[in-house]
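can u do me a favor
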């Protein structure tokens, strides 16, 4: 299986920029009323901005020139009223858009998280957790300004630019042509900048993901780092990753900074051309002072929105890579999903059948992990799986739980193909315990109840007693209400394992899978919990993967898995008499 680490960049999936932006902005459609209100506010604000230069022109040419001071006072009061109202409405617009944008980010984050939970184990096995977190948190957060400015910048500024251009053309085509003569220079500059910038922002996002992946891995493994005094080595790695992150950011920003310079240059050229044309070419006697001042205001009103749009364009270029990374995950198909027309698996008895099952990972199809494996397990049987590491023991139980699909052949439970039933109805009737005794942040009671969310306090306590966890739980500061973290709050590895046993016990599964479940328990604790395990196995179809052969002596059958198949099968006594692979494993452990 190909694995991507923090040492290498993730591969980018190129998608059309217009398609990505259209998909992103489509989330705004769920807030039509709010967006309509914001657009009405923006229309008013744009209208006031367009009227202001005309009022200045009228004040100078008509009222001051005509010495109509009473009309001038009325015009000033009207201007004050319109502009104060505009300021208040702008504040209202900002509050509405903040609320809308935060709601959209929450929706996207929820969609992404929900979809990630449907993806198969291969997705998680092939990349560091930190790189997944960077998409759920960092990439989504970066979209807020883009969503908000689409409504508050792109639409009103585009309307402003068009309106200003129309007004200027109506008043003087010659002055308009001079003021806008630098537009081709601006268009060429923006195109060139976006071509160079997008790739650099993609690199920056990848470097950010690498840094997040390293930090998550480093902090999770701090005990190992300190145990082997590897702080200096990890410090050098961190410095290298932060340096790459800094360089990639500087490279991207350096291109983006050129956008403002291009706009300023074009603005300056347009302003010089305007006044040169009005004063020198047309003549000051043919252009009124009010008109020239109005055009000066309009050219500012034309280029300032363009400056805003260029900033928005920069935001799009900057964050388009983030949107692409989010949609890339959302578009990743869930390989392990309910088939069309899948039915719910009814309460099962627990028979399990493999029919000529072959399995290979998708990225290594020629390397068969299992090949043509067949067997039948009766309800209530306990089957032990032993064999060398990598022989395929865990793959067998993963296929039963349908964490992977078979490459060939079928897995049947009570005669039904696991690929024809819903995942929820299949896995809800299974109890799976691995050597990774993971605890969630919460109380002891909540960690055990995770096995069955509707379990009562009495059922939780009975489950803990059955696996001999009750006594040590009661010695904790608050008993079953003691808060735990992922690290276990000082619990021993054996105690963490016992809590995991209780969590599995309370789920009352029909098929039980114990994958090296006692590997972290010392011999004394193992003897104590063995009775609890036997009670857990009683009446259930069970698959027990164990390297300690002492834990599987009472199994109904033992499968020795080797070279992708079942090399031997039988009880412990029968296999010892054969003096084959199982005998050699047994003697290696018990020759003392």
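np, heres the sequence
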């Amino acid at each position: 299986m190909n694995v991507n680490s923090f040492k290498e960049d993730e591969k980018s999936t190129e998608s059309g920029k217009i398609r990505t932006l259209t998909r992103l902005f489509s989330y705004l459609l769920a807030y039509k009323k709010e967006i309509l209100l914001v657009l009405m506010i923006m229309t008013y604000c744009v209208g006031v901005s367009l009227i202001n230069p005309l009022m200045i022109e009228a004040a100078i040419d008509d009222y001051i020139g005509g010495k109509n001071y009473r009309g001038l006072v009325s015009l000033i009061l009207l201007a004050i009223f319109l502009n104060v109202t505009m300021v208040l409405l702008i504040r209202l617009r900002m509050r509405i858009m903040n609320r809308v944008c935060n709601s959209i980010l929450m929706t996207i984050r929820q969609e992404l998280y929900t979809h990630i939970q449907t993806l198969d184990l291969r997705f998680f096995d092939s990349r560091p957790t930190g790189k997944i977190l960077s998409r759920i948190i960092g990439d989504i957060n970066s979209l807020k300004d883009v969503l908000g400015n689409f409504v508050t910048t792109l639409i009103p500024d585009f309307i402003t630019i068009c309106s200003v251009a129309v007004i200027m053309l109506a008043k003087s085509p010659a002055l308009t042509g001079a003021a806008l003569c630098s537009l081709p220079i601006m268009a060429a500059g923006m195109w060139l900048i976006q071509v160079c910038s997008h790739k650099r922002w993609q690199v920056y996002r990848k470097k950010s993901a690498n840094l997040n992946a390293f930090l998550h891995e480093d902090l999770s493994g701090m005990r190992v780092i300190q145990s082997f005094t590897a702080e200096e080595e990890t410090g050098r790695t961190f410095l290298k990753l932060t340096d790459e992150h800094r360089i990639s950011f500087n490279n991207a920003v350096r291109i983006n900074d050129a956008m403002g310079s291009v706009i300023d240059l074009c603005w300056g050229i347009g302003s010089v051309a305007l006044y040169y044309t009005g004063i020198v070419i047309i003549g000051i006697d043919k252009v009124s002072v009010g008109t020239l001042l109005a055009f000066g205001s309009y050219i500012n009103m034309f280029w300032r929105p363009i400056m805003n749009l260029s900033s928005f364009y920069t935001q799009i270029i900057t964050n388009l890579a983030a949107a692409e990374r989010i949609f890339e995950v959302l578009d990743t198909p869930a390989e392990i999903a309910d088939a069309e027309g899948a039915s719910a698996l009814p309460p099962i008895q627990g028979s399990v059948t493999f029919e000529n099952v072959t399995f290979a990972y998708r990225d290594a199809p020629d390397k068969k992990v299992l090949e043509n494996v067949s067997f039948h397990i009766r309800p209530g049987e306990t089957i032990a799986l032993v064999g060398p590491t990598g022989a395929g023991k865990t793959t067998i139980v993963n296929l039963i739980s349908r964490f992977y699909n078979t490459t060939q052949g079928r897995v049947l439970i009570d005669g039904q193909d696991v690929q024809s039933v819903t995942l929820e109805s299949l896995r809800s009737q299974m109890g799976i315990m691995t050597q990774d005794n993971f605890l969630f942040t919460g109380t002891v009671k909540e960690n055990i109840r995770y096995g069955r969310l509707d379990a009562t306090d009495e059922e939780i306590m009975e489950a803990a007693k059955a696996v001999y966890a009750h006594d040590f739980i009661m010695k904790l500061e608050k008993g079953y209400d003691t808060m735990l973290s992922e690290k276990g709050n000082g619990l021993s590895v054996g105690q963490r394992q016992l809590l995991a046993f209780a969590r599995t016990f309370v789920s009352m599964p029909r098929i039980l899978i114990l994958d090296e479940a006692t590997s972290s328990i010392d011999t004394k604790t193992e003897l104590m919990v063995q009775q609890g395990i036997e009670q857990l196995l009683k009446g259930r179809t069970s698959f027990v993967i164990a390297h300690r052969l002492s834990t599987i002596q009472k199994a109904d059958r033992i499968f020795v898995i080797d070279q992708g198949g079942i090399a031997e099968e039988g009880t412990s006594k029968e296999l010892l008499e054969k003096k084959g692979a199982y005998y050699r494993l047994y003697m290696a452990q018990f020759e003392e």
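The chain is about 60% helix and 10% strand. hope that helps!!
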